[in-house]
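User: Please predict the structure of the protein below. I'd like the answer in structure-token form so I can feed it into my own downstream comparison script.

Assistant: Understood. Taking the following sequence of 255 residues as input:
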Amino acid sequence: MNQRTHAASAGTARVPAQSRSEETAREAAGYAVGGAAVRGEHTHGERPAPRSGPAVQRASVRGQILDALRTALMGGELLPGEVYSAPALGERFGVSATPVREAMQQLALEGTVEVVPNRGFRVVERGARELAELAEVRALIEVPVMMRLARSVPAERWAALRPLAEESVRAAATGCRATYAEADRAFHRAVLGLAGNAQLVRIAEDLHRRAVPLRGGRADLMSDAGEHAALLEALVEGELDRVRALVAGHFADAG
């Protein structure tokens, strides 16, 4: 195979050509993701990201890669609008391209990345309007549920969620968007979980992943986490008007 590098179009990530092992032989035939074949991803010239930390263990490789990719997306290591190939990302994590493609398939279903046939995956760019629309959808789902729970859940059950609110504040203080996103999701998951509706929680989590902006500083995170603590105190005290205002403001800020 000719492994000479070729000039890539503007904005396209470039990857060095790589050899296949027996483990990745089936990749030569292509691998369909989201209905689009990604066979023959170009691996010419893209500079692989430096490997950080130990290589991913083989047990539950796909799940570990999925978590690692989400962290890289939230942390800004994978940039919106850029195209990344599965072989190059596999190099970074010390695995074959196959589990990377499988993890990317899940991210494509979640709307975080999109398939670029024969090249790899592009990180989705979300503009202000799209983020505002997602925040509106989240509010339409979560606000009525939270208000219903505010009227029916006893104070001691709300108080039991204080550790999650406090954890979100600690996560925000790190300034790491990936760390905070998980703490934020855990808090909302616990609140909505009180409704006893697993489908509601699943849909809300999917919207959360789509709605989290990939940019923003520590101050933004601290402000968002502070709203968790204030909301929880209002729920414990049974102050329904304050709960309504805080919940509405929380999603308005997200947009």
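That's the full token string. Confidence is low (pLDDT under 50) at residues 1-40.
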